[in-house]
Amino acid sequence: MRRRRILVIAGAVVVVVALVAGLVQALAPHDDRTAANGSGSPKPTASATASTTPSGSPNASTPPSPPGFDKTQFSIDDPASIWVVSDKLRPLNPVDYAPADLTAMPIPTTWGAVPYLRKPAADALTAMTQQYTAETGLNIQIQSDYRSYQSQVKVYNGWVASKGQAAADLTSARPGFSEHQTGLAVDLVGNPAKCGLNACFGDTPQGIWLATNAYKWGFILRYPKDLTPVTGFEYEPWHFRYVGVELATEMHDTGVQTLEQFFGLPAAPDYAP
Ligand SMILES: [Zn+2]
């Protein structure tokens, strides 16, 4: 009899304790939000993680997931930067900029002289054209390489004389606005040449291969089809711009075709009035 009473009392105590505990929990401020923000949420410390990880396991040496692509890594304003964005709204500054590391390339040209680009672009283009020949047995040559401010004056005036200014502005940049003046842009064609400086180059074996593979060497097809309202230039499947493997690969992987779109710059369909 006494034993049963003790059991009943003990049971009642348990129930009361449970109720009080539940009440305390219900009245306590919910801190999910602060926990979600990181303050006060218990996180495994580095030492705790390490102590449960067998030494030498892959986890111990795996670096943290890579951070997002750093779009501020290089200047897009400095004409000497491999990321410089030159378009009809962004003249080179200074307008008569000339690169300091022009390098000769062992690549044939349509005009027979030795071609030049800036050192990183020259090295990449040489490797890319050699790989193309090794892979296909076909050849690529250069139709236009680095152009100085003065030679761009001649080229642009030649286009104006033959096609008029409006048509010239769709094909050739005005002096100070040309990517060729940076020493990072090149016009390519097959060897023997076919469809040079013509949209049909995009359908040649060289044009198809370059459009698919140039990013692996750090080049982008700078004036893609149907993006004249963004770049200000007609489709130029022959014009490749060196931006480095990292940026070219990022643009390829994210499907962003122009530097203007990638860097969130205004479209540059025409020169400022
Ligand atoms: Zn070009």
Strand order, sheet with most strands? 3-4-6-5
The structural class is alpha+beta
Radius of gyration: 31 Å
The separation of the N and C termini measures 105 Å
Helix content range:
25-40%
Low-pLDDT regions: 6-58
CATH architecture of the domain at 102-262: 2-Layer Sandwich
Instruction: State the CATH topology of the domain at 102-262.
Output: Muramoyl-pentapeptide Carboxypeptidase, domain 2
Main β-sheet, in a few words?
4 strands, antiparallel
What's the oligomerization state?
Answer: single chain
String of helices and strands:
HHHHEEHEHHEHEHEHH
User: Strand portion, in percent?
Assistant: 5-15%
**Which of globular, elongated, flat, extended, rod-shaped describes the shape?**
globular
Bound molecules: zinc ion
User: How many helix segments?
Assistant: 11
Overall mean pLDDT stands at 84
Organism: Schumannella soli
Domain D-alanyl-D-alanine carboxypeptidase-like core: 116-244
Pfam families: VanY
Protein name: D-alanyl-D-alanine carboxypeptidase family protein
